[in-house]
Every structure is written in C-alpha cells, then in structure tokens.
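Support reply, case 0932

Customer input (verbatim):
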Amino acid sequence: MSYLAKQLSYWRKSAEEVIKTADILFKSNRLDACLFFCHLALEKLLKGLVVQNTNAPAPPLHDLTKLADIAQIALSSKQKQDLRTITIFNIAGRYDDIKLSFYKKCTPSFTKKYSDITKTLVLWLKKSYH
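Our regenerated output:
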C-alpha cells in the first residue's frame, strides 16, 4: 500500500472513531468536548479528501472551509457557513482564554443542532470518497 493510500485510510477510519466519540460525549453531557470532536471528525474527513483528490498529503490546517477548497469540494453557501461555525469549535476547545465563554454557549440545544449538522456533513462528505 502506498504512503498516500495509507494516509487516506487513516483519515477515513480515524474520522469514524472520532464521530463515535462525539456521540459518547454528547450523551455524557460533555457538550463543549462533543463539539470539539465534531470539528475533528470533519477535519479528518476533509484531510482524507485532500489526499484523495490532490494525490498529496493533507496540510496541517484546522480551517474546514480551506480544507474543503484544497480538496476541491464544491460547497453550498449554507455548508460554507456551517463549516466556518464548526471551525470555531476547534479554537474554542483548545485555548483557555475563550474556553469558558464557549462552555457557556454549549447548551444542549446548541450542541444538538451542531452535532446534527456535523452528522449531515459527515454523510455527505463520505459520498465523495472513491
């Protein structure tokens, strides 16, 4: 198996595990962590599509819309906006100075909304894999 084929397999399998973790975190009421993992699942799927569609390793980026652009994925304006919003969950989940305000924002309804959006995007992105 080539290096790029291994990378593609890694990104796909890893994304599947991460989305399962997001579900567990939601059920455990770890809502901020759930959204961080929602971002991570989408990031991994998009990085796999970068590898698949460009025959090059994925760059070390966390910006979901930039990754979609590099992967040559056509997005609707709503998908772009959802990816921009979900990208913020990565930053908010990492840096202490904004973690508290993010934590307060992660109500059950807010988290459920973006968990559902993530799952829809995951299913849609999976269709782009060969």
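We compared this against your earlier run and they match. Two observations from our side: The chain has a mean pLDDT of 93. The CA atoms of residues 35 and 100 lie 14 Å apart. Please reopen the case if you see a mismatch on your end.
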